[in-house]
Design goal:
The chain is mostly beta strands and 1053 residues long. Strands 1, 2, 3, 4, 6, 7, 8, 9 and 11 form a nine-stranded mixed sheet that branches. Helix 1 (213-221) crosses helix 7 (350-361), helix 2 packs parallel to helix 4 (301-311) and helix 4 (301-311) packs across helix 6 (326-334).
């Protein structure tokens, strides 16, 4: 995003969130700028990184006062290096403008420049967007206008330089006519987590267990009533006349708009105009007199009753019985609309309205029918507002098949969106509908023109009894009964003689008692006819495996804990592989050594298998302190172990890496694995708010991106000194000692993180009496000459030489460290030989081989591609967050399947890259492509290509006689023995064969299948050599090596 300068700024919208803008009652807000602009930040909860002691508080910046008396402004503490201030608006609003006024009287220019404004809808700002950025003195007022509204709940002002922050007054403005006055203009929240109701909208936190829960969730699921985006319903709040009219219009099922407004106070641009006109056209509403509707007035009980009675068709009878209000109240009592709502006076709450609306939709409607010249009003059983106006009908029955699992068909491979009830097929998008399998249910479905109909809501019938039992709690299990522990109590349940058995998702006709009693997993028993004999026996058995090797070409997974081999036949078997951490579908090639697999395996009657595989790459590194019966304690934290865990392999005091499954249970231990430090550039640190504050660090890593990492709460060291969460000031002071940047913690560091991505140690170049030296600065930023000597690349000053090895990392740190996109991982190929650069050298050690180089911020380096290879899968065109059309490259990179977008249009030639191409990338710190270079040309290298690349005709891409950082070799695998291969050219004269060790921990292997036009991560098992398989079957590979350390190998099939 470009710098935004000046006092009055208009911004293009960068991101429109999925939250819907909501509001509190407008009477709570003061109005500024115009009669239509509302300051939604006024007196809302504010916080700040620091406060000037004894003089002011964060809420002084949004209290509506800026007269410089009694310190009515906010100002940060002078010792706060990077201050910030923020406000919680309470709800998400469509913000049209943000204004910041400088404090009155004498003030410093630094207080009014170098800051940015950030908006978010999550309190941890993980979905934040930069709304404005300013680097100049704005004088008296800074203004941001948003022509496209920014829908946000949290607003933060933070400094981008080490200067004080002060705010005389901040206003966050929303246009009054754009703010709906309550929850009923919002959208439903997250899906229900309650297994008794599927598709039942939001499980609102503030009504759980109350009489409002069932009717509210029912109406929410059908889209009739909504809640607030913070997960509450606020049942005691009131509703405006406009809001309730929207509810009524939804029940009416149509929108009819008059050619001109019916009411003088409801213009066409009012948010509820179409709903009000619908009800006026249907003669359900009449207004309050004098041509007015009073849309923003709170609706009364009698007004609510009148609308519901009219919707149900009883308006004429109500008028005959006394009219408004008595006649309508009488009919409402007869129809039992008040049932369950409790005592209702003149006013009515949202919760009471929900109950009455639920009663209304379950009431048969009264409609006029005509026979000849006679007209008669009558009801038809089952014809309700839902069925008549919305085509939504109610039914009941047993769920006998859902998403591929059937009570009747052992080979069912049904679509994941379909289910059957009493033999009839339905369609549904409900998330947790599997939990209703085998149960007797009541459900509501939308009756469209085409079958199958869509189920919108499903509720367990009272005739069901469901019992879920963890495998570890089972005492015995057979076809007659199951005995188990429920807490400390023993219980027994009977199994029906005709019970259906479902084993890992498939009907099992022939089964043994072992099938009914899994070692790991759970069983679910369903009695769907209330006869105390359970009719459905569902087994979910989990097998846990720790991966040894993977052959993605043959679909074979070998495991460490035993001789088990998982072999998948693509022609017959069905497989679902999911990354447990991300929930994203994966492929067998994504599985790697030490991954823990949770596998559910089942068989169909035709002999094929079904595998559902959850991949976990979780690990915990630390010291084993306690061993229990089914748990261990690592560094003070207790972890369950998987059934069958080999306790003989561990003992108290062991230190190493413990690998966990998707359920965070320990499955394996590797005592030889020790986490090594990695280089990074520490930009800033902070401590989180709350009862248990956590230190956090913002670090640029060797992956070329920034991360925010938490400090480990129990074991965290800086330069060997142990600190706790309460030692923030001490850590801050410690990190400032190096003064890489004056009065700042910013500096190069070496750090270690554990399996939960928590930092356990940070090492700086500072060495005190109490510290330990494990990271050294051999030379600060100074002018050095870059040379290519014919053996390796070196940095030289005077007579001193420091080699650049295959593992050397080079950072380019910008002069302004707050410009994160300007941080880079620099390739030595981008530095010109015999040219002078300002470079700092770290960790060269006795061997004089640099571990880390830091290039000065003022240096200009050509944006060339780095050395790491990417195997291209496809290039697609998409929209970025700013709504711009950009190209995106998808493929395999650094062992992972990734997607990288270009930084700006035109960097990627969409027609230039196809599946199977090999490129090197130049990435920003935000992982955007700013340049790329093709490294492989299967049809020969074009004459105009001057960058290093290889092809079948030119298979050697190294500088002559050097072990350079970018050495590319293409050839066939000549021999393979003990995971050592030799790669040589088709033509023996091209180059001498090279030796590649497949044991290298840095080695990444990919495979390109030219017939299927697909790419995979691969294993050594997929490599064939000429000596064993013949020259024609020998694998052709592209290898990138660096100082004879292998990094990447690509197999071309």
């Amino acid at each position: 995003m470009p710098y935004l300068k000046g006092r009055i700024i208009t911004l293009k919208n960068r991101l429109i969130t999925t939250f819907t803008a909501l509001a509190m009652l407008l009477s709570q807000f003061a109005v500024f700028a115009s009669d239509n602009a509302v300051n939604v930040a006024l007196n809302m909860q504010a916080s700040a990184s620091s406060e000037l002691s004894g003089e002011n508080a964060a809420d002084k910046a949004n209290d509506g006062i800026n007269d410089n008396e009694s310190y009515t402004y906010y100002m940060s503490n002078a010792e706060d290096e990077m201050p910030w201030w923020q406000v919680d608006l309470g709800l998400s609003f469509p913000v049209s403008k943000i204004e910041i006024e400088a404090r009155k009287g004498s003030n410093n220019e630094a207080e009014r420049k170098n800051f940015r404004i950030i908006g978010a809808n999550k309190d941890d700002f993980t979905d934040s967007v930069v709304l404005a950025e300013n680097s100049e003195d704005y004088g008296e007022k800074f203004v941001c206008d948003f022509s496209t509204r920014q829908v946000i709940r949290y607003v933060k002002v933070e400094k981008t330089a080490a200067e004080p922050l002060s705010i005389g007054e901040i206003r966050v403005l929303a246009e009054k006519n754009e703010i709906p006055q309550g929850a009923e203009t919002g959208v439903a929240g997250s899906a229900s987590a309650d297994e008794s109701m599927a598709g039942a909208g939001t499980a609102f936190s503030d009504i759980a267990g109350t009489k409002y829960e069932s009717p509210v969730r029912f109406l929410n699921a059908l889209g009739i009533m909504n809640g607030y985006p913070d997960g509450t319903f606020r049942s005691e709040n009131e509703i405006t006349r406009a809001e309730f009219t929207k509810i009524a219009a939804k029940l009416y099922g149509m929108t009819a708009t008059n050619s001109s407004p019916t009411f003088s106070d409801v213009a066409e641009d009012h948010w509820a105009y179409s709903y009000i006109e619908t009800m006026a056209s249907a003669k359900v509403i009449d207004g309050v007199g004098n041509g007015r509707f009073a849309p923003d007035d709170v609706i009364t009980t009698n007004q609510t009753v009148k609308i519901l009675v009219a919707l149900l068709g009883y308006k004429e009878i109500a008028e005959f019985n006394g009219g408004y209000p008595d006649g309508y109240v009488k009919i409402a009592n007869q129809l039992k609309l008040y049932k369950g709502a409790g005592e209702i006076g003149e006013s009515i709450t949202r919760g009471q309205i929900a109950i009455m609306v639920k009663n209304a939709v379950e009431t048969d409607v009264l409609r006029q029918t005509t026979f000849g010249d006679k007209s008669e009003a009558s009801t038809i059983p089952g014809v309700t507002l839902l069925s008549e106006n919305l085509d939504i009908y109610q039914a009941e029955g047993v769920v006998d098949a859902v998403r591929g699992t059937s009570l009747t068909d052992a080979n069912d491979e049904g679509d994941s969106t379909y289910l059957t009830i009493n033999g009839y097929e339905y369609f549904s998008k409900i998330d947790n509908i599997e939990s209703f399998f085998g149960s007797y249910v009541d459900f509501w479905y939308y009756k469209s023109e085409n079958r199958p109909y869509e189920i919108l809501l499903m509720v367990l019938d009272k005739s069901n009894t469901i019992v879920e039992i963890d495998a570890e709690d089972i005492i015995s299990a057979n076809s007659d009964q199951v005995e188990y522990y429920d807490g400390d109590k023993k219980k027994k349940v009977s199994i029906s003689d005709s019970a259906d058995v479902i084993y890992n998702g498939f009907a099992l006709r022939d089964y043994t008692e072992d099938d009914l009693w899994p070692l790991d997993g759970k069983i679910r028993l369903v009695d769907n006819d209330n006869d105390n004999d359970f009719d459905v026996y569902i087994v979910n058995k989990i097998d846990t495996y720790v991966v040894n090797r993977v052959n993605s070409a043959k679909n074979i997974i070998s495991v460490k804990n035993g001789a088990t081999v998982i072999e998948i036949n693509e022609s017959y078997d069905m497989t679902t592989i999911t990354n447990a951490s991300t929930g994203i579908e994966a492929e067998i090639g994504d599985i790697k050594e030490w991954d823990v697999l949770s596998v559910t395996e089942s068989y169909t009657e035709n002999g094929s298998k079904y595998y559902d595989i959850l991949i976990s790459d979780k690990y915990i590194d630390g010291v084993l302190e306690t061993i229990g019966d089914d748990y261990i304690v690592i560094d003070g934290e207790k972890y369950e172990t998987v059934p069958g865990f080999d306790f003989s392999e561990v003992q108290v005091g062991d230190e190493g890496v413990f690998y966990a499954d998707a359920y965070n249970r320990i499955a394996a231990y590797d005592g030889s694995a020790v986490r090594e430090g990695e280089y990074g550039f520490l930009k800033a640190m902070k401590v989180t708010d709350g009862i248990s504050p956590i230190m956090q660090f913002r670090i640029f890593t060797t992956d070329g991106s920034f991360v925010t990492l938490d400090a480990h709460k129990k074991k965290f060291k800086v330069d060997g000194i142990k600190y706790t969460d309460s030692d923030f000031d001490s850590v801050f002071a410690h990190l400032k000692r190096n003064e890489y940047i004056s009065d700042s913690v910013a500096q190069p560091v070496k750090f270690v993180r554990d399996g939960q991505n928590r930092i356990t140690s940070i090492d700086t170049v500072y060495v005190g009496e109490e510290g330990e030296e494990s990271f050294s600065c051999d030379s600060p930023l100074t002018n050095r000459y870059w040379k290519h000597t014919g053996i390796m690349t070196v940095v030289a000053t005077g007579g001193e030489q420091v080699a650049v090895g295959g593992d050397t990392v080079m950072f380019k740190v910008p002069a302004d460290i707050f410009e994160e996109d300007d941080f880079e991982i620099v390739s030595t190929a981008s530095l010109s030989s015999d040219s002078q650069y300002s470079v700092a050298v770290y960790d060269s050690g006795a061997e004089k081989i640099a571990g880390l180089l830091v290039l000065g911020g003022a240096e200009t380096v050509e944006a060339v591609a780095g050395n790491r290879l990417m195997l291209v899968e496809e290039v697609v065109v998409s929209l970025n967050e700013e709504g711009e059309i950009v190209a995106k490259v998808c493929g395999l990179y650094h062992g992972n399947r990734v997607e990288f977008s270009e930084k700006e249009q035109g960097i990627i030639d969409v027609d230039d890259l196809v599946c199977g191409d090999v490129i090197s990338l130049s990435l920003t710190a935000g992982n955007l492509i700013k340049g790329y270079t093709k490294r492989w040309y299967k049809d020969g290298i074009p004459e105009d290509v001057t960058t290093r690349a290889v092809s079948p005709d030119e298979p050697y891409g190294c500088l002559s006689g050097t072990n350079d950082e970018l050495c590319l070799v293409y050839g066939k695998v000549l021999t393979m023995k003990d995971s050592i291969i030799t790669v040589g050219p088709e033509d023996d004269s091209a180059y001498e064969p090279i030796v590649v060790s497949l044991y290298s921990p840095e080695l990444k292997i990919y495979r390109y299948d030219s017939e299927e036009e697909k790419i995979y991560t691969a294993s050594p098992d997929e490599i064939f050599d000429a000596a064993s398989s013949g020259s024609s079957r020998a694998s052709r590979v592209l290898v990138r090596i660096s100082c004879r350390q292998e990094y990447e190998l690509i197999i071309f099939d």
